[in-house]
Structures
1.
Amino acid sequence: MKKTTTVLTYGTYDLLHWGHINLLKRAKDLGDELIVALSTDEFNQLKHKEAYHSYENRKFILESIQYVDKVIPENKWEQKVEDVIKNDVDIFVMGDDWKGEFDFLKEYCEVVYLDRTNGVSTTMIKKDLLIG
Ligand code: C2G
């Protein structure tokens, strides 16, 4: 029985935009199942990020996306090895703004950094809306 290929990625996914969707689509295209570890509101504080939408609402939005099969909470930096093992992950994916940061996972699974989508970001959206 062929094992399904499980892909795992992490992020805040606030004010969802086409750059996020572009990442999720390419991540899902690498396998059969895509798990997103979504930064909790508390973890965002550790990342010095403040999401506009709550964790529950960001989770609801992600779960509505055709490419996403499962959403789990990201509570701390140190949970990735455990997440990879517990979820039998084959491929870990992040945008290449994180290139190299998670190479320690190569001991447990394939690590893929996908090109970040230029021209859009949550920060940019917030700034543009401020200017009005
Ligand atoms: N991304 C992208 N293109 C953009 C914006 C984001 O490809 N224009 C990707 C990022 O590289 C990341 C994912 O979308 O892989 C989610 O981005 P963020 O929500 O900003 O995630 P981040 O705050 O980088 O959290 O433990 C890892 C962290 O939780 C990553």
Note: The two ends are 55 Å apart (CA to CA).
2.
Amino acid sequence: EQAASEGIDWKCHDPSQLEDSAWRLSMLSQLNAAIDAGDLWVAYQPKYDVATRMIVGAEALARWTHPDKGPIRPDIFIGAAEQSNRIEKLTLHVLEDAVTTTIAMRAHVPDFVMAVNLSAKLLESTRIVEQVRDILARHGLPASGLILELTETAALGSDSQSLSTLHALRGLGLGVAIDDYGTGMSTLDYLKRVPATEIKIDRSFVQSLDGQENDRLLVSSTIQLAHLLGLKVVAEGVERREALDILQRMGCDLAQGYLLSHPVAKQILLAKVDPTPLRSAA
Ligand code: C2E
Ligand code: MG
Ligand code: MG
Ligand code: MG
């Protein structure tokens, strides 16, 4: 299982992918076709209840395996897709797969909740509200089974159109998470304006939890603040047992990270909760 999940995190990528702008352009022109060809797929990283250590949800993470170039880093093709008009098609593709997966997971974990990353760019139009409602309705998933994750650094707080789109999405009954919480700017402003249901503490605070007294203070006070505001807290990037134990003592609700599971293919996620994993792999 571990071997099967490795290789999905693309740790050994080609660093020249970052600089080569000709490559970026040609990659972008291939993105639509890649989605149609199935080269763009979705990995799932389980989210665990810190107290029970059971799987209660997962985060959908886009993966692109290029036929010649091999795996392309998400931060590269997501960024490129955001700068063009490709992000909508990509997001709907991920949402469709994620909702299907959620239905399958709910056969084993009835309250399973799926998180999908949403580019703030898609909040600039209200179209996304109908699109999300339509996908949920077609698959029969209640909105409470879906969380949309927003990266804090996106310039959201000042844009009233984006905020009203976000309120409309919340109005459907789904959850909203502030991703990478603690990085970027205007943290308190964000908490005040964004109709969030959950914050995800950035892994830069989580990784050194067992060594850094400062990080412990920042994380524990953040958990307390979030709970006072009625928000759930997810710790991302949990890589060590010691960090997970500290998070449990602090009352953190959920955790994700390589210690618990790497992002894995849908079949492997299912096998983690399906008592007859061979049947679903067949
Ligand atoms: P994110 O949403 O903050 O996702 C968490 C990232 O941390 C993922 O990287 C995940 O593989 C990685 N990670 C998880 N556990 C650990 C750990 O224990 N240690 C370390 N070092 N890393 C860990 P990934 O998959 O490369 O994704 C990078 C970013 O790309 C995501 O950050 C998200 O912002 C974006 N992204 C991925 N898929 C989508 C998508 O479908 N739509 C949008 N808009 N953005 C996406
Ligand atoms: Mg995320
Ligand atoms: Mg994150
Ligand atoms: Mg991130």
Note: The longest strand covers residues 55-66.
